[in-house]
Amino acid sequence: MKKILLTSLLLGSSLGAAPAPAKDVNITEYLPEVTFFAQGKKYTIERVQDPEHELSGGFAKTSRKCPPFCVHPMQIAPGVNTVAELELLEFAKNKLEKGNGVLVDARTPSWYQKGTIPGSINIPFTVFDLRETDPELVKTLELLGVRKGQSVNYADMEHRAMDELGEAKRAFPYDFSRAKDVLLFCNGPWCDQSPRAIRALVKLGYPTNKIYYYRGGMQVWLLLGFNAYVPDAPPVKTAEKR
């Protein structure tokens, strides 16, 4: 089924929608854009139509001090799937729109507010490092379909992954039997924010076959001319009158 869905995207099938208008810069030869719904909003992913367009600013940089900004491997954790742009588009159309998946921008809010991949939500990587009983972590995991309680699924797979990461086997305080597929990204192959979030999820016991890592991140996304979505600014907090 996955192969069929990806082939549909590659061939430009709109999966039931009307054909998109012709563009000078398509995503693939027969795919000009991808439109989908997530969080009650309509999103369109397309590429910049100016063939002379170039990156400027921070994402045009080629080198950053390492450490901490070191290049990450293709496989960030055992069992976790690394994906590229077309697989992300398939995820958006097949998972986000149907409510079976969550696209997570794992960067800090200041980065997220500057522009993100359409359809994503912001869950900073620091949230996944909180104590297992922390209310903010519990609420975040609930958003991903995870509940409190002993998990009855995926235990063997997760224990093997934990062992490979050097962690001891243990019982997890969460039930992952209804966990959603989650695709995480950050600033690029040199960014440690989504890798840290992924490792923290694995440590918590999240099913590795439900975790996806977009290694390219915002830098590669923008380098390929894909559009960014600028979220609505959060409300400004004012000091209470005394």
Automatic annotation (TrEMBL):
The keyword Transferase applies. Residues 1-22 form the signal peptide. It comes from the Bacteria. CDD domains: RHOD. Residues 97-230 form the Rhodanese domain. GO terms for molecular function: transferase activity. Keywords: Signal, Transferase. It holds the Pfam family Rhodanese. InterPro entries: Rhodanese-like_dom, Rhodanese-like_dom_sf. This is Sulfurtransferase. It comes from Sulfurifustis variabilis.
